[in-house]
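Q: Start with the shorter request: fold the first protein.
A: Done. Sequence, then structure:
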Amino acid sequence: MNSVAEFIDRIDTVALLERGWDIVRWHLVREKLWQRSESRCGRDIWQGIDWKRAAIGTTGVFMYRIAKRIVRYVTGQSTIARAAATAVASITAAVSSGVRTNETDARVKNGWIIASEMLISKDLEEDEEQVEKIGEQAVSSDEKVSTEALEQVRSIAVWVGRRKEVGQCEDEHEDRKRLWRAEEAFVEAALSVHASVEGIIRDIRRRAAESVNWNNNGSSLQQIWTTLHEDSSWPEWASAGAVSRGSRGGVNWVTIGFQGLDPTDDFRGSGRYGLDCLFSFVENHTLSACEIIVGSRSPEIHLDSVRAAWYSAALAGIHVSAFILELGDTVELRHWLNTCIMIKWQMSSHVSGNWVRELMDELYGYIFIEFHKVWKNEVKLGTIKTILDFESAFRRFKNMITERIGKLHIPISHSEFRTYWEIVEKKRD
């Protein structure tokens, strides 16, 4: 009996409840994103529906809303207000103790709570649409998310208006007014980060919808070819059969991993976004690009062979960009982006559209390089025997990467992230 009582005493009830809220919120965001994806594609979510999943999802939303209303009634605060208050309290304590990683952790965790609430709250749907448009405009124009633009959003305007009222109130203690200002500033920061996340996702979808053709994009493809073949790491044997009079640009695109004489035909699934990713990877990571393309085959393998373990490197790169587009409908990618951008925001108080694009390019590079490593390892283990195993191998790989992203297992080379990623690793251990 005593041992049971001691066990109960050891349980951190608050931490347990918080963990439960986090799990419920994660699944609700996942369901919301799935519904948005189906609606965007013009599919009826009720056609061929999994009724068990629908029942669980509907019940979950209903229970979550009831729980939210009870907590709001008891505390007198909304979910966003509580997250802001918790963040400011934790940040203040972290700054006082000098533990910077605790400050980062508080910003990331509570920023994600606010972003999740924007996504799943029915009352905030119109505001969410405005925030996403603001983010898309900022990313597309290589600017930071405008505070002035965010203040036009109804729910945010309430916070700003309250701040002005607080500033004019002489009866309130100065410390209390300072606390309110800090909470409201955190809400603006969290929504700025959220706008950047949704903005870059909208941006890549927009670029993916733009078709690729030789007249408009041939120069980019020729630059890819030139960069690869002029690099000192490119072997002489890989240039065999490089000239092809019947193909676009007079070169044999099959030798670098395209399927036919016109490389633009391969971008149907990912559009200009797929070309942008491949171009950026080759230009900024030329050595890795050469290693992947050369390592995807060998001098002994004929590029028409279906009995050897090789793959079309450029086509695999296009698969990676299409995979990132799929991730745009997942809670995992949003959580990862929210974490990365919040850390960047903490360091510089703003995030430019160009920086967010670079972050997505780095994610693309990581996934492409990682696929090549996995492919080589599975060939060595005998799991992959021929090029016909590519599709099944890539499906397994996508599941693995999605899980890694959800658990923040994707390392980032930007120096400002290293400290936070170290603490994430320690928590896992």
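Q: Next, the second protein, separately.
A: Sequence, then structure:
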Amino acid sequence: MIPSHVVNRPNGKESGSFLALDLGGTNFRVCEVVLDGHSGARVRQSKHTISEAQKAAPGTQLFDFFADCVYKFLEEGGPSALTKSYKLGFTFSFAVDQVAINKGFLILWNKGFSNSGVVGADVVALLQAAFKRKKLNIAVTALVNDTIGTLMSHAYIQPSTRVGVILGTETNAAYVEKMENITKYKATDGTAEAKEMLINMEWGAFDDEQIVIPRNKYDHKVDRTMNAQGKYTFEKLISGMYLGEIVRFVLVDLCKTGEVFKAGGSPELNKAHSFETAFMSRIERDHTLDLSDTRTVLEDMLKIPRTTLADRRLVKTLCELVGKRSARLSAAGIAAVVTKMNKLDGCTVGIDGSLFELYPHYSNRMRDALREILGISAEYIVLEQARDGSGQGAALIAALADKA
């Protein structure tokens, strides 16, 4: 439950041109978002890759590289674009101690980065200094979390949006909270009069004590064998990074006991992460009589010597169980948040990520679970596809950052 320092939500009438810099890891984007004042936006972007050498260079060189990319991006818009003034939102997907909407100190690097002079420093100030060296008239007005950005991006289209959720490779949620309920937050000059603030829940870490949600031995195995044991255990039940591995662990066990693949398993199946969550999606979409697409996944991709129809049906059922649990747990989280906000009379939830958008039946399973949990009130909870929180959402936060 991390205060975001974001105290303004869009109403769809915002207009103008704003920038976003989205650093998620090896890849990053520069975006220009033009808001039309009628809940519409036009986005122009460029994508870049950070080399291994750049990840190990001094920090000033890394931030100068970002400034160079922004300069070239603006240069494409003509000479006048380089002289204009802009506000920029910086989506920085690393652990930071954020003390204001435009100030955050890097706690530690990960994802292969080791640039010196950045840990313990204000990353907004480093980026601002790089823009100054490049003589760009850009004010970095917001340091942005992508889930907060998802809520903001969808609120521009649908102002009734009060919850933002990521359901993809990772999962997280954000919601709107009344200031008097945020006891850990000390108001600053810019937030003293605010009535509400967006909260980054980091809900992937919910129940890390493992006393609320039932877990089985395969869940514990995923937790032990993948990153950060004992941390983000809720995420490990839900997100796309982990679902395929849960299915793989079950299949390896069933193969050992002879309950599936009696012709034998395969070295491929025994490799960590070989059963991708994308395979689950493909298998759940397979409605052929002999489950031929499931056979392709098992025999051609996972190199299992021979499968029977009974094998394929079992695998499909297993994928359905793991996929359905993910959707239902996500829905339970949303139900809890909406209940906490006392918005059972009506709330829009903007959801970004490949699970919600692409995984078969995922959104319908979520809606079914909401009806089971909330009854008739579920009809007033609208789940909608949201897009580009780290780009459009970051630009919106930058645009609104200095408005009281």
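Q: Describe the second briefly.
A: The radius of gyration is 23 Å. The longest helix spans residues 309-340.
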